[in-house]
Amino acid sequence: MATRVEVAPGRQTVVQSPPAVTESYGLWSWITTVDHKRIGIMYLVLGMFYFLIGGIEAMMIRVQLASPNNDFVSADTYNQLFTMHGTTMIFLAIMPLSSAFFNFLVPLMIGARDVAFPRLNAFSWWVLLFGSILLNLGWFFGEAPNAGWFSYANLTSSAYSPGNNVDYWVLGVQVLGVSSVASAINFLVTIINMRAPGMTMMRLPVFVWMTAVVAALIILAFPALTIGGTLLMMDRFYSTNFFVPEAGGSPLLWQHLFWVFGHPEVYILILPAFGIISEIIPTFSRKPLFGYSAVVFAGIGIGFLGFGVWAHHMFTVGMGPLPNAVFSITTMLIALPTGVKIFNWIGTMFGGHLQFKTPMLFSIGLISMFTIGGLSGVMHASPPVDSHHQDSYFVVAHFHYVLFGGALFGIVAGVYYWWPKITGKMYNETLGKIHFWLMLIGFNLTFFPMHWVGVQGMPRRIFTYDEGYGWDFWNALETIGVIVTAVGFIVFLVNAWMSLTTGEDAPEDPWDAPTLEWGIPSPPPVYNFATVPTVTSRVPLWSQKYPDVYGGDDHGDHGAAHADHAHAASHGAADDHGHDGHDDIHLPNPSFWPLFVGLGITLAMGGYIFTTPGLRSFIESDLGIDLWYFGIVPQNIITFVGLAMTVTSIYAWVLEPAFGHGQAHDDDPSFLDTEAAPAH
Amino acid sequence: MAADHGVIEHPTSTGLDNRKVAMWVFLASDCMFFGSLISAYMISKNRSVVGPYPEDLINIPFTSVSSFVLLMSSLAMVLALSGIQRGNVRQFRIWTVATGLLGLIFLGGQIYEFYEFNHEGLTLSRNLFGSSFFTLTGFHGTHVAIGVVWLFSLFLASFKKGLVTQKNSLWVEIAGLYWHFVDIVWIVIFTLVYLLPY
Questions:
Q1: How far, rounded to the nearest angstrom, does the alpha carbon of residue A369 sit from its chain's CA centroid?
Q2: How far apart are the C-alpha atoms of A396 and A65, rounded to whole Å?
Q3: pTM to 2 decimal places
Q4: A32-502 CATH pick, 1.20.210.10, 3.90.79.10, 3.30.930.10, 3.40.50.720
Q5: More confidently predicted of A561 and A599
Q6: Is A392 a catalytic residue?
Q7: Could you confirm whether A380 is annotated as catalytic?
Q8: Which of A85, A389, A425, A545 is catalytic?
């Protein structure tokens, strides 16, 4: 993105300009960046890349299943494809794409200059990158993970999965968990603690609220996956017995740990999309969100109930009637807050002046497609019905309607909506609409027939099937649907390319939108807000633009238009220097230590697969040195190098000044002072 | 003085320091780590098909002493924090080292216990008790070890001018939050693993 950011002139006379303010766009500046907007773009690019990879895996699955007794791929390759399709789409496509919006938007929406911990934010991205490489490394050795994205014990035990396939999965996912938890802590603290004056919790944009709920879910749900993964690692690398039935271990323990994580994970994937369309629908309905509090509390309710439904994934394992009944009831309950949201979006559109721009189309697509997925979800909340649906294509149809029809439609809506803000360029509306219709038609062609073949008994995860079951036509149709969807994605890429190269420059507020990020230039300057805005309503920019209608906040206390500060930022920040000179801009320093900590952690984990027994035998046999207990060091040299890199980089990180000039080291020994600089 | 460390320049929305909020949030997450692991231990309990069993090995008097040592380290931690908060660097240093040493004694006790159990034939792979016991207590011991390294790092940093000062006492407070949390978790583990009838 060849954009230049002007530094507020005159600022340098107030504070010495921090190094990051002189913007450069070389490779090194991206590697060391701690700017939340750049990290957001890096998440977007990485998520899109893995969406492409996961999409190619899906296409290969569909080609294999297009006709009976097909031999496009082998059964073993097929296992690797469906395992990595699920794992990639969940951990490497939808979560990073949601993270891209968290990163780019949350500080802008709450009126902050960055997140609470900018370097931790960069660290989250690097760990994600390295972890994703570790997870996918198996492809290059022909042994990608092949035990399903849930990796049920005891299929994953050394006895039944002797290769390294499962190792790549369990180690890679552990590393990705570090990224998610670090990022979630960062965003929860940012939202709690970094809000601009007047931005109370009940004035937060719904997207920010959903980010907070998702962060809380990640913080509380990922540990179960990490511990499950740790136990699996112990079983595989140290021959423990957690999931070994012959030794008294319990494979069901894995299912519980996995789904205690796995069900909240469903809401981790869908709530960001709910947040996104809760911003888009009001803008293109020309009305504030209907029932803001209800939408917020419904989101919190979904997050809360999300921890009480995990065993509905396990109705068929024989938990007994009482647990089945309890989890059935909680699962049906969760349809209530979800329904509240659907009705509120419809209520927002009702009586509004609807503008069917591309983001609005995708948002309406989410509401309708997610509702279908939600309805089939309520169906298998009933254990007897679930016994019939379990492991059939009906379930595949269900979760694609909520994750593709829900989460992905929302993410694509968000990409179009904030594209002008992120890139500073407008996209082509016609191509966007073509993309929408191709994706909607292709998606339904692929996944709707799965309901039918599922109820007719077609099982999941089979790599081929005989003719004569009545599945042939529908499977062929499903494969055609994938092609339609893929053409739609190509249209999107063309649109993106044309926009970046020849698109017209975006104004700061192309949609006449209500939230703070539209009050600053597109793309935003590195410091976001020249002056931190003061917020008096839930629709700050509308309060400013239409004071007669939205002058007061929702509680009726008519505050002054607050967003003129944010507006001033776009029209010459220097002007306000005279009366607002104390609003010093301190930007965090760039740093490369986050990269090295992330690399160190990944090496430490990857070293479990890539052991070096040759080095050990060289030292012990050829050099004749008795290593005693320490033979493990040369045997696992990569792990130990990774650990050493992690520890030294953490110390370097802590001792490096986060803000201000490096020489603060020399002339100001108290550079670690936590006392805040004078505030406005 | 523009230079600040990982925090913003203007007052936070809640008035609490970002780092302190982040530590509380992390501890919430850590609760779930230990919660999952303790659940795994409890589910695996009494399901070993071969010995040695817990009743053959567990030495409650010995572990009670090392638990007492760990709990006393929390008292030392409080004194260290109170020292730095009042600007008494000497008190901070003495009690930080004391906290770290008490932690080391606890770890020494754990290593001795592991060695003894191992001597009696209990290994990670021997039975389910070995698997779950070593994993759970080892996970906790790793937490203690990280805390010890952290405390000694703070102690050494206090000799460089300006790194650990009265104004910066929050760094010590955060380490203290972590340390107390690890102690509290041990109370739970000690009760469930050692004191409950096998």
A1: 20
A2: 14
A3: 0.90
A4: 1.20.210.10
A5: A599
A6: no
A7: no
A8: A85
Q: What is the pLDDT of residues A304-314, one digit of tens each?
A: 999 999 999 99
Whether A460 is a known active-site residue: answer: yes
Which of A265, A386, A576, A583 is an active site residue?
A: A265
What gap in Å lies between CA A156 and CA A148, rounded to an integer?
10
Which tens digit of pLDDT belongs to each residue from A149-198?
999 998 999 999 999 999 999 999 999 999 999 999 999 999 999 999 99
Q: Which residues of A touch B37 (CB under 8 A)?
A: 227, 230
Nearest to B29 among A181, A668, A675 (CB): A181
Active-site residue among A11, A38, A119, A263?
A263
Phi, psi of A392 (to 5 degrees): -110, 170
**Interface contact flag, A226 B33, Cβ < 8 Å:** yes
Q: Summarize pLDDT for A80-126 with one digit per residue, the tens.
A: 999 999 999 999 999 999 999 999 999 999 999 899 999 999 999 99
pLDDT at A627: 78
Query: What are the phi and psi torsion angles at A584 (to 5°)?
Result: -65, 145
- B18-195: CATH topology: Four Helix Bundle (Hemerythrin (Met), subunit A) (1.20.120)
Question: Is A579 an active-site residue?
Answer: no
**Cα-based distances in Å from A406 to A218, A237, A275, A402, B180:** 19, 39, 12, 5, 43
Q: In chain A, what are the domain boundaries? A: 32-502, 531-580, 601-667
CA distances from A678 to A75, A528, B3, B9 (A): 65, 20, 12, 7
CB burial string A548-581: b at 16+ within 10 A, e below: eebbebeeeeeeebbbebbbbbbeebeebbeeee
Cβ of B131 within 8 Å of Cβ of A240? The answer is yes
Q: Indicate the DSSP class of residue A513.
A: -
| Distances in whole angstroms, Cα of residue A554 to Cα of each of A79, A282, A296, B70 | 53, 15, 14, 53
